[in-house]
Amino acid sequence: MEYLLFKTTAFLLLGFCSCQNGLLLNGPLNGAVGGSVKFTLINPPSTQPDGIIWSFKGNREVTIVASFGESEDPTVDYVGRISLDKTTASLELRGLTLNDTGLYTVSITISGVESRGETSLTVFAKVSTPTIESSGGTLIAGNSSVTLTSGQGTIITRAWTKGGQPLSPSNRTTFSEENRTLSISPVESGDNGQYTCTVNNLVSSARETHTLEVNYGPHNVHISPLDVVTSGDRVSLECLADSVPTASLTWMFNGSETGSDSQLIIDKVDHSHAGKYTCTAWNSVTRLTASAEQMLHVTEDFSAHSSPLSGGAIAGIVIGSVAGAGVVAGVIAFGLKMAEVW
């Protein structure tokens, strides 16, 4: 058990600092095709080495460069691709290719004493912008399924979002092939929107967005809530329906077709317009219809039938009132005189 623990600890330390015979190198390193990396000693020598040799072991074994004193002899494949710091023994490698993935070893000699160290490099191709392909064709809510597939490449992770929110598996949503595909079955109206696939590796990231259109409806057909109007008013009835694509509308009045726009306008309503109005919505893709009804009642504006009195009529009323008052006063005076006689 103690031996296993020792080997595990040693492995972790080597993976982190790449130490061997006293030289510690940075790494493990990751690089991108066409990019560059720099191998450096964490504990560089205190004096300039007498000799430096960098070697590579991957799909082949080769000496990258050997430097002794003033001389520097890079291998042909590395001419123009490397820079060696003779003081610190660090090495920069440019123009990376996938074949540069492997193990890198440095050996330095100071006063006849040789020290060695090694590290590793993994070169990744930059991820390309994924192409999202939809397998579903024309999608109808409740009846269709769709699979979104992202592109290939040197990809470490793929992540899917809808409207900026992460997607996770559900009873209708599944992922496969390390998130390469996203499947929804069946699709529903709420699945409309923008789906983004983000791909990453250790050196790059890219994303692509696909708009998913699910045809549905018509649902929730209703007519603007207007049931009692006054004769002579201008009336506008509006029909609304949830539908993708937009539904075609037909108006019926007491069983007879009377319009096909979202609004039915009556400039001056009268009693002949009272009755039942029906709006029918039709979706040309789902081939579904739905209707709503509204009763319209028309009342009279009685204030429109009352006419003001003419000036002569008003004068007659005043004169009549005055004459009436005089008769009443005469009767009262006659009664008083009769009372004195008696």
From TrEMBL:
Entry superkingdom: Eukaryota
InterPro entries, sorted: Ig-like_dom, Ig-like_dom_sf, Ig-like_fold, Ig_I-set, Ig_sub, Ig_sub2, Ig_V-set, IgSF_CEA-related
Keywords: Disulfide bond, Glycoprotein, Immunoglobulin domain, Membrane, Signal, Transmembrane, Transmembrane helix
Transmembrane segments: 313-336
Domain Ig-like: 160-215, 218-291
Signal sequence annotation: 1-19
Protein name: Carcinoembryonic antigen-related cell adhesion molecule 20-like isoform X1
Organism the protein comes from: Clupea harengus (Atlantic herring)
Lineage: Eukaryota, Metazoa, Chordata, Craniata, Vertebrata
Gene designation per UniProt: LOC105902147
